[in-house]
Amino acid sequence: xxxxxxxxGCIACALLVGGPLAAGAQMxxxxxxxxxxxxxxxxxxxxxxxxxxxxISAIQGLSLQLSNGRVVFLHHGTVINPTGTKLQPGMxxxxxxxxxxxxxxxxxxxxxxxxxxAEPGAGISDRYHATHAYGTIASVQGSxxxxxxxxxxxxxPGTVIAPTGTTLQPGMxxDVLGTPASNDxxxxxxxxxxxxxxxxx
Length: 201
Description:
The protein is α/β, with parallel strands linked by helices. It has two domains: about 40-125, CATH 2.40.50.140; about 130-195, CATH 2.40.50.140. Helix content is about 20%, strand content about 40%. It has helices spanning about 5-25, 40-50, 125-130, and strands spanning about 50-60, 65, 70-75, 80, 90-100, 105-115, 130-140, 145, 150-155, 160, 170-180, 185-195. A five-stranded mixed barrel has the order 1-2-3-6-5. The protein has a five-stranded mixed barrel with strand order 7-8-9-12-11. A hairpin with a 3-residue loop joins β5 (about 90-100) and β6.
């Protein structure tokens, strides 16, 4: 076998082996990295698993259902504020607990607000009132807003607004969870937008 034959054989082998590999490499596009969740999404999901605010629609044994469909389980160590309060349908509550099953919460603490059919200001838990607010936005000015009740809400860079990306505007109904500020105001940690009133549209 002469040198020319050997070289031709090597070239043929290289084409047979290298050709499909090269073609295969060109046919397989690089996979893009997974998209990052919108800012605040993870924080909101963690919050939703351990906190909920809403009205009680039904009670059965040691569980209750809120008007938004969330189920809350009570246990013998659950703290209810004000002490001695008997939970009833129509009460507005704020729940702190731990995740349980599908979108349910095991309640460690329940702060009771007013019944929906109660007179304004009747039976409001001071603890609930100091850290929670619910109402319609009357005005927005910079990083603060005022509810139709006159209550002032202060925002900060870490405030989570749900749904993510929502721009707060007058007429929106919101739930607020935060910490007490001066003059009955609240510094908001989480603001959940519930809807828009007819006058705000």
